[in-house]
């Protein structure tokens, strides 16, 4: 299967063709928003970059094209690892792709820039799927099961002066993300926000989200936030 992410009326990046096997997350508006911030801020140029939960490799590819000195990508899904490897090779981009859980495959290494578009959709239970497409978005009852692990574990992999760029829905509370990053010793701030219509998964779960008070009655859009975090010192 092929997919694209590309330019919209919001000024997201121009279209890039990506191979996407079944079961691999399709680059969507959250990916595009993070890429826009990455490019406009010039954050990748000359830096060693880590893409956590790479999926098709869209963020890794964008970082390489934005002048990264090196790019490393990690994903728990073997299909995603294969997709990212193929896509970076098809676009003639050098990228080391590793299979594993979040930061485990790169433990002990340091990066100037960490990119993350993790699963963040609130689910019916706290049990995280491992072998179904829902692993690409299910993130526990509050949507923070993976987010909190990144906030806690990511800072140890940042080089001095390094930056983490993280995108997620405000439905899972960006204030909590800011506090978690601050507790981990980073200075964090929201770099940009964008309101987008609910995607298919959020539409299906709208009633559940309303019942939990995570969205307003009748709300069918969400705010995406990109957070930047550096070492406070």
Structure description:
With 233 residues, the protein is an alpha/beta fold. It has a single domain, classed as Vaccinia Virus protein VP39 (Rossmann fold), CATH 3.40.50. It has 7 helices and 9 strands; from the N terminus they run E-E-H-E-H-E-H-E-E-H-E-H-E-H-H-E. Helix 4 (145-153) links the parallel strand 6 (111-116) and strand 7. Helix 1 (29-41) packs parallel to helix 2 (58-65) and helix 4 runs parallel beside helix 5. It is globular, with a radius of gyration of 16 Å. Mean pLDDT is 88; it is low at 2-13.
Summarize the structure.
The protein has seven helices and nine strands; from the N terminus they run ββαβαβαββαβαβααβ. Helix 1 packs parallel to helix 2.
Topology:
Layout: E1 2-5, E2 16-19, H1 29-41, E3 48-52, H2 58-65, E4 70-75, H3 78-90, E5 96-99, E6 111-116, H4 145-153, E7 158-169, H5 174-183, E8 186-197, H6 200-204, H7 206-211, E9 221-231
Parallel strand pairs: 3-4, 3-6, 4-5, 6-7
Antiparallel strand pairs: 1-2, 7-9, 8-9
Q: Which short descriptors sum up this protein?
A:
233 residues; 7 helices; 27% helix; alpha/beta; seven-stranded mixed β-sheet; disordered N terminus; Rossmann fold; two-stranded antiparallel sheet; single chain; globular
Q: What is the CATH level 1 assignment?
A: Alpha Beta
In total, how many domains does the architecture comprise?
1
Q: Name the structural class.
A: alpha/beta
- Poorly predicted tracts of residues: 2-13
Order of helices and strands: EEHEHEHEEHEHEHHE
Helix content: 25-40%
Q: What is the C-alpha radius of gyration, as a whole number of Å? A: 16 Å
Q: What is the makeup of the main sheet?
A: 7 strands, mixed
Q: Can you name the CATH architecture? A: 3-Layer(aba) Sandwich
Strand order of the largest sheet: 5-4-3-6-7-9-8
């Amino acid at each position: 299967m092929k997919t694209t992410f590309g330019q919209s009326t919001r000024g997201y990046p121009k279209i890039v063709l990506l191979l996407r096997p079944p079961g691999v997350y399709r680059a969507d508006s959250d990916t595009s928003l993070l890429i826009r911030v990455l490019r406009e801020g010039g954050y990748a140029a000359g830096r060693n970059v880590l893409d956590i939960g790479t999926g098709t490799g869209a963020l890794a590819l964008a970082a390489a094209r934005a002048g990264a000195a090196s790019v490393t990508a990690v994903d728990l899904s073997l299909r995603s690892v294969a997709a990212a490897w193929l896509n970076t090779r098809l676009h003639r981009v050098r990228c080391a792709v590793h299979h594993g859980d979040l930061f485990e495959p790169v433990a002990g290494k340091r990066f100037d820039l960490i990119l993350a578009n993790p699963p963040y959709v609130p689910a019916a239970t706290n049990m995280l799927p491992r072998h179904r497409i829902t692993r690409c978005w299910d993130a526990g009852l509050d949507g923070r099961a993976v987010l909190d692990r990144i906030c806690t574990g990511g800072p140890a992999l940042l080089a001095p002066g390094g930056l983490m760029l993280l995108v997620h829905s405000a439905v899972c509370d960006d204030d909590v993300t800011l506090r978690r990053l601050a507790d981990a010793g980073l200075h964090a701030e929201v770099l940009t926000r964008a309101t987008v219509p609910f995607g298919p998964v959020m539409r299906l779960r709208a009633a559940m989200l309303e019942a939990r008070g995570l969205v307003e009655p009748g709300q069918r859009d969400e705010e995406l936030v990109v957070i930047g975090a550096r070492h406070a010192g």
